[in-house]
Design goal:
The chain is of the alpha+beta class. Helix content is 57%, strand content 12%. It has a 3-stranded antiparallel beta sheet, covered by helices on one side. A two-stranded antiparallel sheet has the order 2-3.
């Protein structure tokens, strides 16, 4: 008879994250569901074994080993699944801080689960509301600027962009000398680059 190897799917989820580097791989819904189901099966197996053997069974070494293996497999599955979800959450939070929710690339959004999209939307709303409440642009760089103005080169065609200091025509290859705080979000989004 073929033996079932516990935690294999959960470990594969983590290996997939490692292979993807800092990119967000497609959310593997079927693997996540499989791990959750395995956790449930392990829990039911442990509970059934304890009920079947009754009180005093903890002194039986075979029984204790059986319970220990299943319990540690259950815990490993939980740790791997939580690590998978937490790693993905941290990548999404980085995207929010660097690009804003609107700046998250379509290919990244396609790799997100519906729950992750909901999380990122709510996270964005919380940050935006707080930023408005304290009247501080939290997305701006935390380093003090060396000067108020920076020279930037346009990378993507945006047409005419309205800034606080006036409107600016942004065609690829053009360079401008602009107020840093007005264009930092465009630099983070890859529309401009600092020269």
């Amino acid at each position: 008879a073929e033996r079932k190897q516990f935690t294999t799917t959960a470990i594969e989820l983590l290996k997939e994250l490692k292979r993807s580097g800092n990119q967000l791989p497609r959310y593997d819904d079927s693997a996540v569901r499989k791990v959750v189901e395995e956790i449930g099966v392990l829990y039911e197996t442990i509970t059934a074994a304890i009920q079947e053997f009754g009180p005093g069974c903890e002194n039986d070494e075979t029984f204790a080993s059986y319970i220990c293996v299943h319990h540690h497999s259950l815990l490993r599955n939980k740790r791997c699944l939580l690590a998978y979800l937490n790693y993905r959450k941290r990548i999404l939070m980085k995207y929010r801080w660097h690009l804003g929710w609107a700046g998250v690339p379509i290919e990244v959004q396609d790799n997100m689960s519906p729950s992750e999209k909901k999380f990122l939307t709510e996270y964005d709303q919380i940050i935006s509301e707080y930023s408005k409440t304290v009247n501080v642009a939290l997305n701006e760089t935390m380093e003090p600027p060396k000067s108020l103005y920076i020279e930037v080169r346009v990378l993507k065609d945006c047409g005419e962009v309205q800034l606080d200091s006036g409107s600016v025509l942004m065609k690829p290859g053009m360079t401008h000398f602009l107020v840093r705080s007005e264009v930092e979000h465009l630099i983070r989004q890859g529309v401009l680059e600092q020269v």
